[in-house]
Structures are given as C-alpha cells and as structure tokens.
Amino acid sequence: MPVMDGRSVAIPNRNSYSQQSPQTPLAARLDRERRRWSSINDQADFMSSKGKEKGKAPATSSEQKSQPQSQPGPSTYRKPIPPRTGYDADVLREMCDTVRTSLHEGRPEPRWEEAMGFLKAVLRDEGDGSRAIEFETIRNTHLDKLISDIMDPRYRHPRVPTRFAADIQLVERLERKWIERFRGPYFHIEEHRYRELPKNGRLRDVTPNLDAENPEDHWQANNGETLSEMEGNLEIEPGHWWLNLACAHRDGIVDSNREKPTKGKYGVAALPLLTGQENIDYDDGAIRYVRQGRIADIHVSLISQVGATFRILRGYHLRSPFAPKAGIRYDGLYTIRRYSQWFNEVSDRHHMMLTLERVSDQRPIEDILNIPRPSEMDDWNLYQKYESEAQENVDREEYQRSNDFRNSLALLPLTRQPLLVDKMGKNDKKGADKGGKAKGGDKGKDAKDAKDSGSGGKAKGAQSINVRHILCEKHAKKEEALAKLNDGVKFDEVAREFSEDKARQGGSLGWKIKGSLDPKFEEVAFALEPSTTNSPKFVEVKTGFGYHIIMVEGRK
Q1: Helix axis angle, 112-128 to 164-182, nearest 10°
Q2: DSSP of 266-305, one letter per residue?
Q3: Cα–Cα dist 200/132, whole Å
Q4: Taking the CB of residue 286, how many other CB atoms lie within 10 A of it?
Q5: Which CATH number is 464-555 given?
Q6: Which of these, 197, 177, 199, 179, lies nearest to 187 by C-alpha position?
Q7: Given this model, what pLDDT does residue 474 score?
Q8: pLDDT digits (tens, 9 = 90+) for 426-457
C-alpha cells in the first residue's frame, strides 16, 4: 500500500456517508431522535436522582462507546440487564399527561418521540428479563392510560402518521407483556387506584358526610390546619389542584370546607370562588367577580380589604373563562382593587362585585389553564364514582330505616284507632244531653263555635298548592341545579335545563290537592311559603323518583 508524505490515509467509515445523506430538516431531526432512543437500553432520564446516584442505570462500556450508534455490538443484547427500580414518578406522569393531552386535542406534540422511545426501552427490558418497571410505577404514573389512549381509534397522532401504525404495534406488544407478568392486578388496576383514593390518594384524611343538609358540608377534613400567608405562598404553587374544598382545607390553604374568606394574620389569606360569575374587561385587563344571594353570601368583611393581596381558588361551578373543568384549582395571588355591593328589591337579593388584579412575578395564568390534566381527570372520575356509591349507601340506609318504621306500624294496627275516632267525632251521638233537642239545639251552636274558632283560632291548612319542581336522578346533577339557583338564575330556566320531569313547562306541576303527591314530596311542599320564579324559596327532598328541588307559587 503506498504511503504519501509518511502519513497514513484515514479510511472513511461507510456508515458515515449514509448518515450524512441529504434529508429534509424534519426528517433529519426525527432520524436523530430514533437513533438516539434506539441506542438506549434504559431510560436514565426518567430515573429519580436517588436511583442515579446508586448506579441503578447501567453504564455504557468502552467497547460499546467505540461502536457506531446505529450498529450496537452483539454483547449489548446478550448480556442481561440487572433489575432496576427508581423511576421518577412525577417526571413520567408529566410526560404521559403531555402526550395524552395532545392526543385528546389532536395537535402535534414534540414529546411524542420521547414517549415512544421510552416505551420502546421498557419493552426491550421486558424482553430480556430485566423488568425494570414495577406495577406501582405503572399505576401511579398512569402509563396504562397512555397506552389505552394511543390504541384508541378516536385519537390519531398527526405528527408522524407514517409511523403511527408501528407505534400502535409497539404499545400493544408492551401491554401484552405487562398482562403476562402482572395478570389479574393489571386488569384491575383501576380498582387499585379506587381503593387507594381514600387511603393514600387525593381523598386521604377527608370524610364524607353526604346526609348533611348543607351541600358544602358533604365532605369534611379530619385535621385541617390553616397555613400562614407566607407558608401558603411557599408551599403551594399556582396550579395545585384538589377534588373538593375539604381537600384544600386538609392541606391548609383555607380554614373551612365552606365558600368563605379565610382570614390570616395580615388580612385575608385565601378566597375560594366556587360559584358566581367572572368577566374580563379587555380594556383595562381587570377581572370582575359578581356574586349574589343573602347578606351572608356577599362577604361583607372584604370591604375593609381593598388593596390587600390574597390567594384565589377557582371551582368548576364558577362561570368564568378561568374556571377549571373539574375540581378546585389554586390560581395564584390577586389584589382587590375595588369592592361594591347593592340590593335588588325586585329579586330580593344582595349583590357583590370584586375587581381583581393578578399579581405579577408568578406563574402565568395561561400555563395553568390546562389543569386538571388527564391523570387528574382520571382521579376526578374515580371521585365521582366514590361519591355516587357513598350517596347510594346513605339512600339505602335511609330507605331501610323508613321501611322498618312502616313495618313496625303495620304490626300495631290498633294505634290508628284514635285517629278514626277523631275523624268520626261529628257523628258521635253520645255528645247529646237530651235526644234530638239537644242534638238539634247544639248543632247551630257547634257550627257557630267552629266558625268562630276558624276565624279567631288556628287557621285551616291549605288544601291545594300550585307547585314547581326540578327532578334530578343523579346527586351531582342536583348540586349543579342548586348552584344555578343560588347564583340567581330563575327557577323555571333551571328546570328547563336540568329537570327530568316537566322540563318544557319549567317544572310546573300545576295545582295539586293533598293526597295526590308522593308523601315525602307533599310534606315539604305544603309547608313551603309561596314565592316567584324570579326569587324562589325552594327546598330539596329525596323520594323514590330521585332528587327534587321544590317551590310553591300559590296556596288555597
């Protein structure tokens, strides 16, 4: 072989020509991503810092480093990788939420290649026997939900349509591997999450009290300790999310499970906005929150807090572009710029308006509007199921008590005899002193006394009422209707939107006489004061048909 100038000529690697072939920018970047992920036997980026320090992620040998990444050496696949744990659950869950959100919204997601590379590495671990990922990691990070969404025909990733079929095959193979390894627990992974919800999940240290009259008391925190203003600002960041206000009370950001201001050492520490309405003034950027109800509902104490800064929590019942789609979210620090209130004599309601301004130098509101994320919505669906089953248990116990009471009355038929005697008293002949004369002479006197008693004594109860109702089969739907009514929406409008009976008539049942309605319904309806649909006085009751919200328009 000839030598030129005493220097050896470097022989180029044939693979280098293929790697430097001209490609479009997008294809080149995707090709680099595929090569990068195909060369990784373990997802060290998703390992916790503790796991990395202990050396649980395998190191690359010098022989493997010397080989091109596109042609890994044979020892790479022959040598079994030791079992590894220590994945960072928060990082994995965040990746799963990001990709699932992009699938649900049908938009491109730059982390798609990252997610598929990770799943490919996990599949490789399952194949060589290392089984680096544990069942608890899959459950806590909702990786099974990510796989289900990828395989769901409703979602198609628009970024890589040519490779999407291969990606589906990859996740199907991975799911089969997990089914073979975990078997029953994997099929019941949702039940595992359901059981963990009140133990170590989002419902820990809160107790249901669904038979309470006030809906705000349906959940209560076991040990709620309110954080100070400084502690709350440091420990709880904007975007934190809870299932209900009792969970927020448990974590200390508010001092009650009710929608009222939380007082701090230096003023108002927090204010939950769960009902009412928010409007944005795009001219000055101010946010105006409007609320109406009784005098106790309009937070009169805030009149002395103009200029104060406090924490705002928004609920999903709030009519606002900033409201979360489920649960309650902490949206950061706000300043009250103005407080005003007035009384509407027509509706007989008090009104309050707060002008709010968000404090700068904190996480932008645009970054948290997508919260709750898919994994949190999974927990929300479990919470709805948990609350529904708890309500069914309460209803079942109430029905059993009522049934036992009716059965006990059936065993004592003689107890009804005094009622029959009272009803038949007007035909009792023993009340006369002197035959027909006494009977005839006292008849007019008795009628006169009865008339006087009716006018001067206790008034006779109504025998018929003009009644409206809103019937909801589900407890959650009834709560939504109550929230609308508390916000000042007309009764007939709420009935048309929510009622499952007489919706077109605005819930109107017309005039009803005693004995023509369900006993529970009739008892509360005939005791209710008449009111109008603009300012209704309503009450709720549970019957065998569902949940009723009742108002009366007239009595006679």
Answers
A1: 40
A2: TEEEEEEE-SSEEEE-TTT--EEEEEEESGGGS-GGGGG-
A3: 24
A4: 15
A5: 3.10.50.40
A6: 179
A7: 84
A8: 344 444 444 444 444 444 444 444 444 444 44
